[in-house]
Amino acid sequence: MSMEGKAAVVTGAAAGIGRAAAEILLQNGAKVAILDVNETAGQSLVEALNKQHGSGKTVFLKCDVESEEQIKAAFQKAAETFGGIDILCNNAGIMNEGTWEKMVSINLMGVIRGTYVALEHMNKLSGGRGGVIINVSSMAGIGPLLSCPVYTSTKHGVLGFTRAMAAASKVSGYGIRFNALCPGFVQTELLDDMATKLGQFSHLADHSNQFLETSGVLSVSEVAQCFLELVKDETKNGEALMVFSKGKKYMQFPSLMSK
């Protein structure tokens, strides 16, 4: 998939993986709507990116993915600004076992909300151009992190939802590919003061730190390169790409039915 002239929406894009995804999309010729709750950081980023890539290449839209109303308004504005939507990166997420209900709402329900609203713009059956949706899961979507059971469940949910949507899109003729990006530990604010975010599992902080030291930490640019691969490669649909500091791997899953 060539990204030249394509229109993209990235949630949670003011910093971290979302920012890196937005930047690599721009570098490859796309226009990007940057969605985030942090208006100050988002506006500042857009100003910097428009100076770098040219005026009108990016727009900031304040959006809380817990609000379907805000998602609908932001996606509509992005479609009006860029003439449609071709690429969506559902990236917004948090990690805090102490506020697990909010984590479920943002990490899992936010992905579902974003996807369903995007379908209204992208689905070929309703006049859209098709495209690709990349949902940011985690290594926790592949295997459990014992100190973060609810975070683990949300990322498992994102992966399952992505794979089911990929199959549904293929059979239904939506013209949209769906893939999940599953990075290991990434140098973002999610890693900051991790011990304070484990809630009732704070006694397992040492285990988490040992696992982090063993696994290594990815840069956001390394994750963005894998995001780009999932966007560009039109053979990828229903894939889960796990990314560690030591390399990457497409996961294999058992099938419940014949293809």
Outline of this structure?
With 259 residues, this protein is α/β, with parallel strands linked by helices.
What does this 3D model show about the protein?
The protein is α/β, with parallel strands linked by helices and 259 residues long. It contains 7 helices and 8 strands. An 8-stranded mixed sheet has the order 3-2-1-4-5-6-7-8, sandwiched between helices. Helix 4 links the parallel strand 4 and strand 5. Helix 1 packs across helix 7 (220-232) and helix 3 (68-82) packs parallel to helix 4.
Cα-atom radius of gyration: 17 Å
Task: Identify low-pLDDT runs.
Answer: none
Q: Overall pLDDT, averaged? A: 94
Largest sheet: 8 strands, mixed
Q: Count all strands and give the number.
A: 8
Number of helices: 7
- What percentage of amino acids are in beta strands? 15-25%
Helix proportion: 40-55%
* SSE order, one letter for each helix or strand: EHEHEHEHEHEHHEE
Dominant shape: globular
Q: How are the strands of the largest sheet arranged?
A: 3-2-1-4-5-6-7-8
Q: Structural class of the secondary structure composition?
A: alpha/beta
For the termini, the CA-CA separation is 24 Å
